[in-house]
Design brief:
By secondary structure, the protein is an alpha+beta fold. Helices cover about 60% and strands about 10% of the residues.
Length: about 160
């Protein structure tokens, strides 16, 4: 709150005073300082920030990379949860576990699974309610990734397949 107020003051008041005093370089620096201050004070609300040779993107997408590289907790996946993953959901879950990608578009999942996009969309929606997948927004629309629970569930399914 205080940083917002200070940054807004620098952005509006200080830059206006410097403009009145006919100091364009100082005014430009004041505007830049105020804008950067506002950006950083609201970083939790900003998806992407780029300017002045600096670029930042929200941690939401980075969390999937951390999740992907984190060892799963043993025995967190319940047998009943695994039984709910059947047919199209299983194919979509397997495609989401493709190590080439962390985030997937519905079109890519449909192509890899050979399923209709609506079936993929329904499977993703059901699995999102189960906490197995998560949705974010990419440049071309919704993108999907496995959650840590989804990775664990996929590992259990693959283990069952190899034991069968």
């Amino acid at each position: 709150m205080l940083l917002n107020l200070a940054s807004g003051t620098v952005l509006l008041v200080v830059s206006s005073v410097l403009a009145f005093l006919e100091k364009p370089k100082e005014m430009g620096l004041a505007i830049l300082a105020g804008a950067i201050g506002l950006a950083f004070s609201n970083i939790d609300k900003i998806k992407k920030f780029k300017g002045g040779g600096f670029e930042a993107e929200m941690k939401e997408k980075l969390q999937a990379v951390v999740d992907k590289e984190t060892e799963p907790e043993p025995e967190r996946v319940k047998t009943k949860d695994v039984r709910l993953i059947d047919g199209g959901k299983r194919a979509v879950l397997t495609a989401l576990g493709n190590p080439k990608y962390t985030w997937r578009f519905i079109g890519g999942l449909a192509e890899e699974t050979k399923l209709d996009k609506e079936i993929v969309r329904a499977a993703l929606s059901e699995m999102e309610h189960m906490g197995v997948v998560q949705c974010s927004t990419g440049k071309s629309g919704p993108i999907w990734s496995l959650t840590p629970l989804g990775r664990e569930t996929l590992a259990v399914l693959q283990n069952q397949d190899s034991n069968a």
